[in-house]
Amino acid sequence: MTDPGAATHERRILGTELLWAFGVGVLVAAVLGLIVFTALTMNINPPSNVEHIDPKTLHLSGEFAEQNLGTTVGADGGVTVRVIATQFMFVPRCVAVPQGRLVTLRFASPDVVHGLLITGTNVNTMVVPGFVSQVYTTFTRTGDLLMPCHEYCGLGHSDMWANVQVLPDNDFKPDRDGRVSCAQR
Amino acid sequence: MIGADQPSAADAPSEVADNVDEAALAQVMRVVPLGAAVLAGTTVALLVIGYLAIYLLIFLPRGAVG
Predict the structure, then answer these.
(1) What distance in Å separates the CA atoms of residue B45 and residue B54, rounded to the nearest whole number?
(2) Nearest to A137 among B48, B60, B65 (CB)
(3) What pTM did the predictor assign?
(4) Lowest CB count within 10 Å: A37, A68, A75, A152, which one?
């Protein structure tokens, strides 16, 4: 015969578990809702560009040829930064970007897998040979930001870093070719 | 079958079930679900507060990315 006291305990535990499951369900839905809401209203998304490039020839011609690296302002005013991540440096080692404007950052690797982040921003991506990594962001503060490689790429990995120089918009002046270099200090 | 020369498990105190006072057990079982919920709730609440603090105070102010 079943002990009525034990049955009551079982019911109470089951009730608590169901309540807990409901609460956790609400919490998970709220967190997912927050992520979707900010993605839709504030344009915060994981970088998801998929674009192929031949790592053997990317430095010879096309957008990652030496003369095209660095910061370029297009005819429409769009700012694009192109950087090659290679063992064990970023080329160029310093890029200038404007404060408060949308900047498109494009990276490619001719050798091994690299990764990068820009301190104080949400920029964080892998750079995989064969693909162009593209991240867009808006820099909110002026100053020099560090951009280290964060994916172990060989013995010189710890020396692989670059600077991102965020300039006030009125100091960000492209030359005749639409190029902007780091200010010399 | 246990022979006369073999000890019974009941001879070892650790093998013998405790005498349980049903009333005391019922008293404990009444608060066990509440205690578990408070403990787990506090733990998860701290985790969520930490997550939201980083998300709202650090991640979002860093601006758009994609």
Answers:
(1) 14
(2) B65
(3) 0.78
(4) A75
